[in-house]
Amino acid sequence: MQNKPENIHPIFNTLLNRESKEKLLNQRAKVIWFTGLSGSGKSTIAKGLENELHLLGYLTMVLDGDNVRTGINNNLGFSEEDRKENIRRIAEVAKILLNSGVIAICCFVSPTEELRTIARNIIGKDDFVEVFVNTSIEECERRDVKGLYAKARKGEIKDFTGISAPFEAPANPDVDVKTNGRTVYETVREVVAHILPLIKCTNKNTEDQIVF
User: What is the pTM of this model?
Assistant: First the structure.
């Protein structure tokens, strides 16, 4: 592990604090961390959550795996070390959003408990809300909108989660969303119902009625 350069002097303690920003936005910031297999519905449910919270007057930001890998993490592959660095970077970005009073909605396969622990430790366990999008691999393969599972089965994609790389389901997620046989409407409502009490300020004027 490299030592920190001597000329680095963080100013965190002198900046405007998170509570002041939450008061301005009239919300409590959290990091909503979606985990699940590729094709499980993470991004779809996250977009539904974002739209619902926006209608209710909450400021959010969605951080999606594919989007992040075209920008800040475009130099990373899918080796074990690169996966760790991918999660570390995005957790740091999510923490910046959290400290800005924003509700960060993160969509990452994050297939192992080790990776999710890295994110949780950076963000802080009290602000980390784990949502397991619990979809069977058979259903994910049936959807396979990106054609990834078919390529992985043929050996064209190496280290593909669920096929040639493991996926460890969370043991105790905050929300366990089972999607098989359910509509997007039903799954989004389930997540929204869990999230609202966590982000609502006692003085929020809007009526938090789920309209999705």
Answer: 0.86
Q: Distance between CA 76 and CA 78 in Å, rounded?
A: 7
Known catalytic residues? Answer: 110
Asked: is 24-199 a CATH 3.40.50.300 domain? The reply is yes
pLDDT of residue 175: 97
pLDDT 10s digits, 94-105: 999 999 999 999
Angstrom distance (rounded) from CA 158 to CA 151: 9
Reported as a single tens digit per residue, the pLDDT across 133-144 is 999 999 999 988
- Domain ranges, ordered by start, for the chain: 24-199
